[in-house]
Write a structure and sequence with these properties.
Blueprint: H1 2-34, H2 52-57, E1 66-67, E2 72-74, E3 77-86, E4 89-98, E5 106-112, H3 128-136, E6 140-144, H4 159-176, E7 183-193, H5 195-207, E8 213-216, H6 225-228, H7 239-251, E9 270-275, H8 283-295, E10 300-305, H9 316-331
Parallel strand pairs: 5-6, 5-7, 7-8, 8-9, 9-10
Antiparallel strand pairs: 1-3, 2-3, 3-4, 4-6
Length: 335
């Protein structure tokens, strides 16, 4: 009799335990979904996928680049908008295409502009003038607009994800070059100006590839100081950005997102140009950066233009000299 009593009590407890577990799970699961737990108990957060280490392991499968009808035809080149995809979203850009036989595959320069206020942005701002010269000299120029600009899809509501997605936009574009029939995927170069220089350097740290790169007055300070330096230009003096940064740094380790902590991964030869009168990027930043590359045995060269500003526009001399030096630099890697 006692044996059956114990069995009955055990069965009741088993059923109650199962029901209780189901009820409890219905109350606790939503909290777990907010902060998912990985296979080994490691918390996974939305921006973890954008660390330099994480992006270095991410595969960017080539997707077709499509070109729209020409919007301009000049002596020696044609200008066309282009489009490509990053995941489910579309990015637009502007291409300057040399008028050479399509059977002759062209070397490619991916040009990355600096920051531009979206409300005044026009395709080609920051890259158009140099792209025209590159195209006249036989280089296909591809300048992405990035999310929220041109005819691209909208940018992320997270200010930091929006920043990090400039890296993935460039990485995807580099992969997609192989789908252009008249482009030579073995001869790809980078060009970056101002914050575009920071994007280019981060791309180099992520890929570890020896992509010859030309930089004009690049932002080379560590993240997040590299953005805090410019907060006085915001209408609110940078208060909102600093508030968001405090939240970001409470959850993430900023060092994992800064290329300056991965200098050893940069294998590319770099040619850097900067004006001595640059009031946007201090000249000493570039001087110290080039020294840090040289100290690690990297190939880097700095050209300083006396009296030239952030855009090397002290007249035509500095700008023209910088473009010619860039072309010669790129050609030195064409066999």
């Amino acid at each position: 009799m006692n044996r059956w009593l114990y069995i009955g009590i055990g069965a009741v407890l088993f059923v109650l335990g199962g029901v209780g577990g189901i009820v409890l799970s219905r109350f606790t699961l939503p909290c777990q979904i907010v902060s998912p737990i990985g296979t080994f108990g490691k918390q996974v957060r939305p921006l973890d996928e954008y660390t330099i280490e994480a992006l270095s392991k991410r595969q960017f499968t080539p997707q077709p680049i499509t070109f729209a009808d020409p919007i301009a035809t000049e002596s020696g080149f044609v200008v066309k908008p282009f489009f490509y995809s990053l995941g489910t979203k579309r990015i637009s850009g502007l291409a300057h295409i040399p008028m050479t036989a399509e059977s002759k595959k062209m070397p490619v320069i991916v040009q990355i502009r600096g920051f531009v206020d979206p409300t005044i942005y026009e395709q080609g701002v920051g890259t158009k003038r140099s792209a025209e010269v590159f195209a006249k000299n036989g280089f296909l120029s591809l300048a992405p607009d990035f999310f929220g600009y041109g005819q691209s899809d909208g940018q992320s509501n997270d200010v930091f994800e929006d920043r990090f997605q400039t890296y993935t936009a460039v990485l995807q574009l580099l992969a997609d070059v192989s789908t252009i029939g008249f482009a030579d995927p073995e001869r790809i170069f980078l060009w970056g100006h101002s914050n575009g220089g920071q994007i280019a350097l981060t791309t180099l740290a992520i890929t570890g590839k020896p992509i010859p790169t030309v930089l004009w007055a690049p932002v080379t300070k560590p993240f997040p100081y590299s953005i805090l330096y410019y907060t006085d230009e915001f209408d609110d003096g940078g208060k909102e950005l600093r508030r968001r940064l405090a939240i970001f740094e409470a959850q993430y380790k900023a060092d994992l997102y800064s290329f300056t902590n991965y200098i050893e991964r940069i294998m590319a030869p770099i040619q850097l140009h900067q004006g001595s009168a640059d009031d946007a990027v201090p000249l000493v930043w570039s001087q110290n950066f080039v020294k840090s590359l040289e100290d690690k045995g990297k190939q880097a060269e700095l050209f300083v233009y006396p009296g030239a500003d952030h855009n090397l526009s002290d007249g035509a001399a500095s700008w023209n000299t910088a473009v010619i030096r860039a072309i010669d630099f790129y050609r030195s890697f064409i066999r």
